[in-house]
Amino acid sequence: MNKIVVTDRTGESQRFDASDKMRILHAGLLAGVGLPHECGTGTCGMCKAKLETGEIADLWPEAPGRRSCRRPGEVLLCQSAAVNDVSLSLRSAFSPPLRPACERVKGRLTLEETLTDDVALFRCTLERPLVYEAGQFALVGLPDLSGPRAWSMIDYTPGAAHFDFLLRRAPGGGASAIVFDTSDELDVELIAPLGQAIFDPDEGRPFVAIAGGSGIAGMLAILARAEAEGPVNAGTSHIVFGLRDPDSAYLLDRLDAAVSQMNGALRVTVAFSDAPASALLQQAHANLIFTEGLAHDVAAPIVEQAKHGDVKPVYFVAGPPAMVDATLQHLLTVLNVAAEDVRYDRFG
Length: 348
Ligand SMILES: Cc1cc2nc3c(=O)[nH]c(=O)nc-3n(C[C@H](O)[C@H](O)[C@H](O)COP(=O)(O)OP(=O)(O)OC[C@H]3O[C@@H](n4cnc5c(N)ncnc54)[C@H](O)[C@@H]3O)c2cc1C
Ligand code: FES
Known about the structure:
About 20% of the residues lie in helices and about 30% in strands. The chain is α/β, with parallel strands linked by helices. The structure holds flavin-adenine dinucleotide (FAD) and FE2/S2 (inorganic) cluster.
């Protein structure tokens, strides 16, 4: 074990141990240290820190998040393993420790249901139950693959020893090739739960959730939580689900049933960017609103209306990075939504 000391910009120091096999970010989070992070997997750059003393191994030198390491000595904590005792400094202050605390747990992944050519549900059965909040994600390590992948839990069954992931096959993707092309069960190792895009019904606020493609994954957990709780007497919640075209659509039955169950407290709009919905599709899902356009454009009038409701909604955004960035830009600068009301996950 190596001794790690991290000092933040206020001068506060926190200490924890990390083996040379473990990424420093993950070891710190597991030890309850509030290290800055977002994706946990090398893309966002939020976990950068300056190496002051000691030696680290850079486990993914090509990580996109390295673009934000501009000062000499800066490294990504989520892609660095300690070679010996190490001290690091942060430009930011420590965050509060994760709640619920994140844990390391073994699991087994099996195909649950194929939804389209490149989207499927996978069941993850855990060695023991895990406590998490609706909207959170897990870092999933697969056998013989360098680096874990971040996948959102789609259910809200905290305390259960299983949950499902909704996975999209990424062309040429390392994890995609393993999970979609292996028929056997896969042993996986999870670090979970992570993520700040959490829905808490106790806030007493409706939500506007804007999802691009597989970004619907975390929204399904939010939906499950809202369904379990019953409608908040605070206004209508909305889901805007952006997809390419009707052929790439999935989970419409699930969303249709949710609108029916939520009894007027939920509206779901399905936005196809490339082709309109057929009359047949609309008839088959009479509770859903179908429209053409990009998710953030389609969401704009919904947000305008929701903004002026009695209770301010919470906004959730998830999906491919370009879609999330366009939506955040629109929400914050065009629609003047307050940043503290927006929670998001960039899927990359
Ligand atoms: C918060 C969050 C939640 C997400 N939720 C979902 C979800 O619910 N469903 C879903 O389908 N996708 C989700 N994603 C995207 C997911 O993490 C993967 O990008 C996706 O599954 C494709 O993985 P891949 O291995 O097939 O593709 P690849 O292109 O091989 O890899 C994708 C990601 O894996 C990591 N990676 C790649 N190579 C390495 C390496 N050599 N060393 C270390 N790390 C590496 C990087 O983060 C990279 O962006 C989420 C992403 C984030 C950040
Ligand atoms: S948390 Fe390390 S790059 Fe995102």
